[in-house]
Amino acid sequence: MSDWALFGHAYLQHAVLAGLFAGVGCAVAGVFVVTMHLSFLGVGIAHAAFAGALLGLFLGVPPMAGALVFSLGTAAVVGPLADRVELSPDTSIGILFSLMVGLAFLFLGMMPGSKAEALGLFWGSILTLTVRDVVFLALVTGGILLLTGLFFKEIHAVTCHRTVAQAAGIPAAWVSHGLLLAAGAVIAVSLPSVGGLLVYALVINPAAAAHQLTWRFSRMILLAALFGVLSCWTGLALSWMWNLPAGAAIVLVSTAVFAAAAVFSPKRKAKAWTLPRTVA
Question: Where is pLDDT greater, at 249 or 9?
Fold first, then answer.
């Protein structure tokens, strides 16, 4: 059988499409998170999605449904909690993070029988995705791209400087909360492919790499999406060739992309020129 003939298998087609949609969706959400300095958000929502998926398994409902409810619930609480009690978003996420870790271990401990399926949600399995999983990924990614295109100016203003955006009449709180919900949705639907332990790396790394290479917000979104898909497809290929865990391979590739971007970053070079030079 030739290498190209392998793409005739449905499971590999699903994996390639999932890599495309998860790579784009996670990376675009990652740009929102990175530019708003909410990198810990990905960790908190990923663990919330994992806890929700475990509850779904425990109750006998689809794990993705539980992951969506928990991740969206967490994203909906983080913003208003930070605004009303004057906590930083990272502090709010940290409080919810500890709650979700506790719930995840509680649901895992209460689960009868084998825990193989539950533990599999930790690292994901992109090669076992169903058509329904891929369709969910496509719908959520398409929704995020559509909303980003429709409200690009508002999103750009809020992510870069929320106070100025609010002074200009933009409903900054609503836009910010909407971005958190979008991140929660894409993390939840990416959980089966990359896993709860690794999905936040796919959110942060491509966006952080793009952030190293450009000052323009629109170009950052395009580069992040490109890096996200490149990480997913390259990680999938490495996993196929050397029998590696796909989720781990995807995350390691995305980390390598960020390292390369950091080395060649024009921002780093510009910063070096602005710093006072020391005499050797």
Answer: 249
- pLDDT(176) > 70: yes
Would you state the structure tokens that stand for residue 9, as one six-digit string? 């298998």
CA gyration radius, the chain: 19
Q: Average per-residue pLDDT in the chain?
A: 82
pTM for this structure? 0.82
Among 192, 227, 190, CA closest to 207 = 227
Q: Cβ distance 174 to 162 under 8 Å? A: no
Closest CA to 134 of 57, 246, 8, 19: 19
- The Cα 27–Cα 48 span in angstroms is 19
* CA pair distance 249, 265, nearest whole angstrom: 24
Count CB-CB contacts under 10 A for residue 173: 14
Residues 6 or more apart in contact with residue 247 via CB below 8 angstroms: 123, 124, 125, 126, 193, 194, 195, 197, 198, 235
pLDDT at 10 over 50: yes
d(CA 163, CA 165) in angstroms, rounded, equals 5
What pLDDT does residue 39 have? 72
Rounded-to-integer distance, Cα 34 and Cα 14, Å: 29
What residue ranges in the chain does DSSP mark as E strands? none
Spell out the residues 6+ positions from residue 76 whose beta carbon is closer than 8 angstroms to its own: 177, 180, 181, 184
Residues with Cβ within 8 Å of 139's Cβ and at least 6 positions away in sequence, in order, are: none
Q: How many residues does the chain have?
A: 280
pLDDT tens across 74-126, in order? 878 776 666 665 566 667 677 777 888 888 888 888 888 777 777 777 777 77
Terminal CA-CA length for the chain: 62
> Rounded distance, CA 59 to CA 65, Å?
11
